[in-house]
């Protein structure tokens, strides 16, 4: 006989665990099913984000940044040292310790909120029955009034570059290299490729990034992408645009292996050899095996679960959130969807505004934005005006030795309502939320310009950019 719950959540990633905890807070009987195991072979909650995505990558980014600064920034501060070295094993061990701390933290939150965890692979059957094949091959059957599908996403594997976990890897493998590769090739100049490429470049690898598209970071504002690309090339990232990879071949070289990559660019077919290959061409919904026949839940042509604006699938009591539905594959978008759906189930208002979800790339400098780009506004024939301000003219940025980058505020030409905030620079992941907040409250560029910003801070760049929009910036020539 099936155990009955008010809510069953399939997936304990960012979207799933938020949904489960919020539903429990609202007085519902909740179960959450997750199949992931940690490096120790034990269940590890938190999804891709906590285990092999957001958190571990940021740990390595911070470690590599410290090492890079020793050789490239500390001298300007009058700090000298001899023979700086990186212990890759210790760096990866620190990352693993942080991951274990946070995955264990989710388990503690489940216990505190009385969320029942089940460990194994879940499949939704008709009438909201969930069958879980546990890791010992036993099966349990659960039933719920509401089921929330939060299965997450998987790395996309190219047919000519199959993952072997050693020479050809996805982001998971690139987090666990035992040593700094001499030559690293990255296919894809997106978030994952740039972040992990930056990690290993800072530690001494020769990094070549092959991007099939003819322009860099097409999703970002074109001016910001240009600024960022210039900084990355200064750091030694070899970014090749319009480079379409068509073949890879792994060859043994003594006890080690190397991979030959064949690609085509404006100069014709090219071949290069590397020690490691990171394939970072995006992610796909992890919907395979999630749905049994007859559930009524539909998938689109990209494998995403079809939902309405409230994340409902159209099947009574079945919802879907996070990476397995439309919208950006971002942890914080999943956070908000999980909370919104739990509150909708409880009869409360629940809503996520996909137009104000911030994007961040945690490179050095960081890239962040919210809202629309100039290109999008031009295509939609929306009248707009722009204000910019460079970090090089900002006292705090120069004092920190972080003058690279700029801020751009875009507002409607007639109403002055903020339509977008785009940033490249140090710590802009923290600054982008000024734009999120302003846009959520339908604020204007003048609102940003009239808010007092502390001096000296990095946030002053937003204030000055907003003032520049109407040619009244104090610290730059308009």
From TrEMBL:
Domain FAD/NAD(P)-binding stretches: 5-338
Cofactor(s) named in the record: FAD
Entry GO MF terms: dihydrolipoyl dehydrogenase (NADH) activity; flavin adenine dinucleotide binding
Residues binding FAD: 58, 323, 329-332
Domain Pyridine nucleotide-disulphide oxidoreductase dimerisation: 357-465
Cell compartment(s), UniProt: Cytoplasm
Keyword Disulfide bond attached: yes
PANTHER family in alphabetical order: DIHYDROLIPOYL DEHYDROGENASE, DISULFIDE OXIDOREDUCTASE
Name this protein carries in UniProt: Dihydrolipoyl dehydrogenase
């Amino acid at each position: 006989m099936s155990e009955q719950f008010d809510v069953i959540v399939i997936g304990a990633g960012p979207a799933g665990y938020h949904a489960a905890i919020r539903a429990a807070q609202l007085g519902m009987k909740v179960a959450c099913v997750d199949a992931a195991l940690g490096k120790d072979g034990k269940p590890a909650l938190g999804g891709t984000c906590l285990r092999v995505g957001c958190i571990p990558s940021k740990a390595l980014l911070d470690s590599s940044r410290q090492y890079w600064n020793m050789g490239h920034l500390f001298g300007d501060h009058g700090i000298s040292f001899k023979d700086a070295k990186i212990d890759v094993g210790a760096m990866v061990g620190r990352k693993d310790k942080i991951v274990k701390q946070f995955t264990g933290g989710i388990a503690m939150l489940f216990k505190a909120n009385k969320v029942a965890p089940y460990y194994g692979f879940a499949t939704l059957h008709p009438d909201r029955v969930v069958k879980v094949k546990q890791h010992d091959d036993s099966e349990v059957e659960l039933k719920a009034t509401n089921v929330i599908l939060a299965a997450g996403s998987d790395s996309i594997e190219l047919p000519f570059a199959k993952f072997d976990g050693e020479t050809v890897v996805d982001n998971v493998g690139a987090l666990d290299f035992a040593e700094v590769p001499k030559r690293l090739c990255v296919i894809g100049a997106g978030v994952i490729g740039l972040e992990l490429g930056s990690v290993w470049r800072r530690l001494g690898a020769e990094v070549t990034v092959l991007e099939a598209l003819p322009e860099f970071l097409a999703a970002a504002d074109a001016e910001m992408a240009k600024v960022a690309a210039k900084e990355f090339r200064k750091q030694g990232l070899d970014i090749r645009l319009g480079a379409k990879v068509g073949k890879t071949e792994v060859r043994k070289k003594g006890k080690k292996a190397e991979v030959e990559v064949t690609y085509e660019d404006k100069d014709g077919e090219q071949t290069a050899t590397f020690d490691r290959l990171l394939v970072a061409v995006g992610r796909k919904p992890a919907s395979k095996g999630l749905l049994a026949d007859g559930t009524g839940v539909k998938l689109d042509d990209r494998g995403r679960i079809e939902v309405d604006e409230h994340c409902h699938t159209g099947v009574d009591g079945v919802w879907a959130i996070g990476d397995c539905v439309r919208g950006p594959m971002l942890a914080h978008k999943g956070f908000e969807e999980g909370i919104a759906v739990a509150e909708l189930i409880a009869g409360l208002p629940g809503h996520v505004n996909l137009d104000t979800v911030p994007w961040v790339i945690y490179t050095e400098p960081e890239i962040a934005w919210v809202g629309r780009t100039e290109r999008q506004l031009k295509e939609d024939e929306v009248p707009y005006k722009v204000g910019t301000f460079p970090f090089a003219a900002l006292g705090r940025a120069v004092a920190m030795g972080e003058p690279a980058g700029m801020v751009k505020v875009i507002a409607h030409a007639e109403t002055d309502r903020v339509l977008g905030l785009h940033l490249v620079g140090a710590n802009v992941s923290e600054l982008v939320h000024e734009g999120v907040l302003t846009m959520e409250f339908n604020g204007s560029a003048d609102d940003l310009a009239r808010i007092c910003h502390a001096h000296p801070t990095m946030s002053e760049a937003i204030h000055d950019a907003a003032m520049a929009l109407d040619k009244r910036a104090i610290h730059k020539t308009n």
